[in-house]
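Recap from last week: sequence in, structure out.
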Amino acid sequence: MFVINQAGKLPNRLFYLSIPPNIFVDVVRSASRTASLPSGSGWTRFIVEKPFGRDSESSGELTRSLKMYLEEEQIFRIDHYLGKELVENLSVLRFSNLVFQPLWSRDYIRNVQLIFSEDFGTEGRGRYFDNYGIIRDIMQNHLLQILALFAMETPVSLAAEDIRNEKVKVLRSMRKLKVEDVVVGQYKGHTRGEKSFPAYVDDPTVPNDSVTPTFAAAALFIDNARWDGVPFLMKAGKALHTRRAEIRVQFRRVPGNLYRGSVGADLDMATNELVLRVQPDEAIYLKINNKVPGLGMRLDSGNLNLFYSERYQREIPDAYERLLLDAMEGERRLFIRSDELDAAWAIFTPVLRELEDKRVAPELYPYGSRGPVGAHYLAANYNVRWGDISSDGSF
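Predicted structure tokens:
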């Protein structure tokens, strides 16, 4: 609990609930009755750390229970990825640069990729992780929130409710996921040189027969006028070859390209790509085609780069630091509203239930690899290649 009491001002209280979900309501009930400030004596707010339930029903029940003791404006559902510098910059990049405004639609974008990978396993979190899995832990919240910010229409203003209204519209326009839209995987043991890496089920807190996915890839679609037919490909996994979080925007071919003979059938070389690297080493870069210096006409794919570490000689605030300050100031635009949470769960709940009811076996992949082969087939269904394994090997 933070008690904020500046000289000459009303006292305020901020509770941070980074606790097991099964005691959320008990703690809120007790705090609201014994430690909240009376009306007119300052504010009392509660930051609620994920997970916000396991599906639509449990999430809805949690919201209803919290609202027995709190008003919606007192609840700050935190997703620390929304406090990342590059995620914060996403709307600035889009809405304050004319060069991107006309391009941000199905007319010019052929696919959008949201990629999250970690180069380590559950690392002692097996008991927690096995109850939720990678879809709930990363995709349904972190990546879906970024997708909503990316795809939303221009809000009326920068006010929190105007931004959150537009995010809800995007989420409500999305198709519910089906099993055929998803690939799940689980890392297995692997030996590289003299070093051995454990399998997920080697964790003593994980059941030996667990089918909980440590990797998932999904194809999502937004059925509205701006994004109709554009695949939003999402993948997240643990124990992969690298640590990264990024948004990759792949544009369409140039119609009637005069240089199509120089790029051949390589769709990835023939098109531009905008990349926002959220972590590590924050950066924005745009892949463009360029003539290789010399007497011939040979094209090459190069990058226009903005590396934050080189451009800005200052420390980038931690995401939690930013969000805690926002909560103290009552700024809600980076926190999740209850109807936004409902819309997000509606997309993922059907496929989560089917995966668990049928105990769908995840495809095994070696610790430290690029993940299951099925993810590449999923992308190929939409004539897409994952950008983080591009042929030029960059970034």
